[in-house]
């Protein structure tokens, strides 16, 4: 199996599993609360499927159709010698379209992750409903998520001006205008991603300390936190791959972006699915 085919199998498998998990989560919630009583976190997770599908399609397209080409990884001589009317014309078009897809890819990648963060924050809000001491923390969580998302989108769309320079080939638009390897995008998204993830990881800790937690529940929580750590690790790895190897790194980073989104979906869905499964299997876990 070629590398491209193997990549296609991986990303579309993760797409299928991710949407299935969201479907199971939603079904479980309708069984527990009913369709009319679905909460904000449920609707946010359902909405995640739209940018998640877009993320997978864009990741596949940039690798399969444009072979990872964008307006980076070229010398000045290569840029100036690339004519617009010749055998190289299709290659030039691939560079332009590949760069545009990189821009769109950053946007949907951030949208997937930040929607999941919003869903998690709404989930914590639902769990701590009626506990005034947690309202402020959760409110600040929503503010932090919204503010950082706007910053990320603003940098993606406004960090390089005029906008067409994001897919400009000649003259060299500079690193900030090369979306596949832009250090501004890489470090900003990584920093804000980690900050919001850490906030969400520590948000429920005070409540858990006051609650009587069984071994099985602790195991689920350990898995939940482990998933959160993996998501952060995947984001850091993406950054390292892009910075270490600007030529091949972006393609590897795209693979890790898809994995990161998938694990984020799984991690955020585990508590809800667990609550439904526990009700279904209550006789087996009555002593847990």
UniProtKB/TrEMBL annotation:
Instruction: Give the signal peptide, or none.
Output: none
Q: InterPro entries this protein is in?
A: Rhodopsin_dom_fungi (IPR049326), SAT4-like (IPR052337)
Give the chief site where it resides: membrane
Does S-adenosyl-L-methionine show up as a keyword for this record?
no
Q: Where are the transmembrane segments?
A: 6-24, 44-62, 106-128, 140-164, 184-208, 220-244, 256-277
Q: Which domain of life is it from?
A: Eukaryota
Keywords annotated in UniProt: Membrane, Transmembrane, Transmembrane helix
User: Pfam families recorded for this chain?
Assistant: Fung_rhodopsin
The annotated topology with respect to the bilayer is: Multi-pass membrane protein
What is any one of the record's Gene Ontology cellular component terms?
A: membrane
Residue stretches making up the Rhodopsin domain: 30-277
Tell where it localizes. Answer: Membrane
> According to its UniProt record, which protein family does this protein belong to?
Belongs to the SAT4 family.
Recorded protein name is Rhodopsin domain-containing protein
Q: Which organism is it from?
A: Fusarium vanettenii (strain ATCC MYA-4622 / CBS 123669 / FGSC 9596 / NRRL 45880 / 77-13-4)
